[in-house]
TrEMBL record:
Subcellular location as annotated: Membrane
Cited InterPro entries: EmrE-like, PUP_plant
Protein name: Probable purine permease
UniProt membrane topology term: Multi-pass membrane protein
UniProt entry keywords in alphabetical sequence: Membrane, Transmembrane, Transmembrane helix, Transport
SUPFAM superfamilies: Multidrug resistance efflux transporter EmrE (SSF103481)
Signal peptide from the UniProt entry: none
Annotated family: Belongs to the purine permeases (TC 2.A.7.14) family.
Lineage top rank: taxon: Eukaryota
TM spans (from-to): 12-29, 75-97, 109-130, 142-163, 169-189, 201-222, 234-254, 275-294, 314-335, 342-363
Length: 403
């Protein structure tokens, strides 16, 4: 057996390798099969039995481990941003209505118009990131990208307007509990769009979340309703919030489909920002059109003057709401890109207890036994869903290691 630590395929080396093969000598080298055709031409298949590949160094294994750690560090960061952004945005949205805000279109606009805060980093990232070499990456067609961004943007606009009605007529704690049902809608839409499988853990989660939502709406008495909210407006708020969760579940499942089919499972900060900024721009245009068509733009100055916390606080509240929603949207897309729409939904749902506790502290929302049971069922359903994600992740890692 002839061991070769390095092969330099100049003319002399080619002769040596060819003679060694013809003499029946086995060559041990990790990359010799790559160059054997260059050495022996059409006779290479006949010499393949003489080539033994010894295992490569552990550098590739170490690199995979490091990439795995970095990936989960990104996931943790996205999760923290998603929960903190969502909680802050919910509280600020409720504050807007509680202190004198009246326009659903203004609130809807604040949920989607915060994308300019991402532009400085987006431009910096694009200017400093070198383009991929080799030409292996095929960019999607412009028309397909335009359709994708418009579709996601319209879903965002509808979702934000429905949520704005829910924020106007429902306490934050109720909005949070009803929003937990978005996991069920995400599972339904992912089943059709992303071939999501219904396992016993997922079915258990869907049943628990459904019971939680039904218990939430059926157990609330008149005392739980916001001051001045009629039974009709309360029902409208619940229906719109429930519809918003369905829209959001469809939006996350669609975004996962976009990453798989349009972006070919590529993952990068730029793609996440692309799918944040452009649809948000489309949704902002839709919200602005609604603001002017409805005539709500005429109420901005009177609304600012009548805001209980003052004009400056009015502006700060709207700007802060826009920033918090954008952070939440960006982090959610990051989670979809790294893992799946299912996992992103689980993370948002994990924020349910945080939202409820924050609402109790800030707005003095009531916490009765029925609401407590509903929250426990929702958290139980979320844990069941998250455990299925854990099993799927372990299964994927096992398959990769076997390969």
């Amino acid at each position: 057996m002839m061991e070769m630590s390095e092969l330099s395929f100049n003319e002399n080396a080619r002769v040596v390798v060819a003679l060694a093969l013809l003499s029946g000598v086995t060559i041990v080298h990790p990359n010799v099969d790559i160059h054997i055709t260059r050495v022996c031409g059409v006779l290479a298949p006949a010499f393949s039995s003489h080539i033994t590949r010894y295992p490569r160094s552990n550098s590739s294994t170490t690199e995979k481990a490091e990439n795995h750690i970095i990936k989960w560090l990104r996931v943790v960061l996205y999760a923290i941003l998603a929960i903190s952004g969502q909680t802050s945005a919910l509280l600020l949205s409720r504050l807007y209505y509680q202190k004198g805000g009246t326009s659903n279109w203004v609130e809807s606009l604040t949920q989607v118009i915060g994308f300019p805060v991402l532009l400085p980093y987006y431009l910096f990232h694009c200017s400093t990131t070198a383009p991929s070499d080799g030409g292996a990456v095929v960019k999607p067609r412009l028309l397909l990208l335009v359709f994708t961004y418009m579709y996601i943007g319209l879903l965002m606009a509808v979702n934000s307007f429905l949520y704005s009605i829910g924020f106007e007529y429902l306490p934050v704690s109720i909005v949070s509990l009803v929003s937990a049902s978005q996991l069920a809608f995400n599972a339904l839409f992912s089943y059709f769009l992303n071939s999501q499988k219904f396992t016993p853990f997922i079915i258990n989660s869907l049943l628990l979340l459904t019971i939680s939502s039904v218990l939430t709406v059926s157990s609330n008495t008149t005392a739980e309703k916001l001051y001045g909210t009629s039974n009709g407006n309360y029902a409208l708020g619940f229906i719109c919030t429930f519809s918003a969760t369905a829209t959001y579940g469809l939006m996350l499942a669609s975004e996962q489909l976009v990453f798989r089919k349009v972006f070919d499972d590529r993952q990068s900060i730029k793609l996440v920002m692309d799918l944040t900024i452009y649809p948000s721009f489309v949704a902002s245009i839709v919200a602005l059109i609604g603001l002017f068509v409805s005539g709500d733009y005429k109420l901005l100055i009177p609304e600012m003057d009548a805001f209980e916390l003052g004009k400056a606080s009015y502006v700060i509240t709207l700007v802060s709401t826009a920033v918090c929603w954008q952070v939440s949207i960006f982090a959610g897309l990051g989670l979809v890109s790294e893992l799946s729409a299912l996992f992103a939904n689980c993370i948002f749902a994990v924020g349910l207890p945080v939202n409820m506790i924050a609402a109790i502290i800030v707005f003095k929302d009531e916490m009765d036994s029925a609401k407590g049971i509903s929250m426990v069922l929702a958290v139980w359903g979320i844990i069941s869903y998250a455990y299925q994600q854990y099993l799927d992740d372990c299964n994927d890692e096992t398959q990769v290691s076997e390969v």
